[in-house]
Amino acid sequence: MLRLAMREDLPYIQQLAEQVFSQFGDYRRILTQFFHSPAVKTFLWDVAGKAAGLAMVERIWNPKTKSYYVDLLAIAVEPSWQDRGVGGQLLSAVIEWVRQQGSTHMFLSVAETNAGAQRFFRRYGFLRVAENDGYYPAGQQAHLMAKELD
């Protein structure tokens, strides 16, 4: 079940960031900054009343198209819940929330070295549209991926 994260969820968010994003940089600090940003919505995916994953999105106005798009800043699944469908359920729920907000496009960045995540996002209709050298704090190149929302 998708729910908005609350202030008391921050330690969980920080711990999960350290578990799954450490190879890309100091994501404990980065996700903490995202969490405190008024422009960012942080969601948790609960299974049996306990958090199993998180997603962070920022809704951004594009004056050229006069529409909103969303940047998926982070998505992570608790290691014990990986490969059990939680990531897909979480991403699908976030995409539905984005649609309900009236956004027309969704973007995300994924490390060039993270082939599994690239496959995962392609399964949900994201296409690679650009490259970004040195995007991650640890210096990895990123693939920018996009999905047009119906």
Descriptive report:
The chain contains 4 helices and 7 strands, in the order E-H-H-E-E-E-H-E-H-E-E. The chain is an alpha+beta fold. The mean pLDDT is 92. The protein has one domain: Aminopeptidase, CATH 3.40.630. The chain has helices spanning 10-21, 27-36, 86-100, 115-123, and strands spanning 2-4, 40-47, 50-62, 67-77, 105-111, 127-132, 142-148.
Strands, helices and their partners?
Blueprint: E1 2-4, H1 10-21, H2 27-36, E2 40-47, E3 50-62, E4 67-77, H3 86-100, E5 105-111, H4 115-123, E6 127-132, E7 142-148
Parallel strand pairs: 4-5
Antiparallel strand pairs: 1-2, 2-3, 3-4, 5-7, 6-7
Condensed summary:
It is built from 4 helices and 7 strands. With 150 residues, it is α+β, with helices and mostly antiparallel strands. Strand 2 and strand 3 (50-62) form a beta hairpin.
Descriptive key words:
37% strand; globular; Aminopeptidase; 150 residues; seven-stranded mixed beta sheet; single chain; alpha+beta
Highest-level CATH class: Alpha Beta
**What is the beta-strand fraction?**
35-45%
- Note the total helix count: 4
Mean pLDDT equals 92
Q: Mind telling me the CATH superfamily name?
A: Gcn5-related N-acetyltransferase (GNAT)
Number of strands: 7
From the alpha carbons, calculate the radius of gyration and give it in angstroms.
15 Å
Per CATH, the architecture is 3-Layer(aba) Sandwich
Helix content: 25-40%
Helix-strand topology string: EHHEEEHEHEE
Largest sheet: 7 strands, mixed
Distance N to C terminus: 23 Å
Which shape, going by the Cα principal axes?
globular
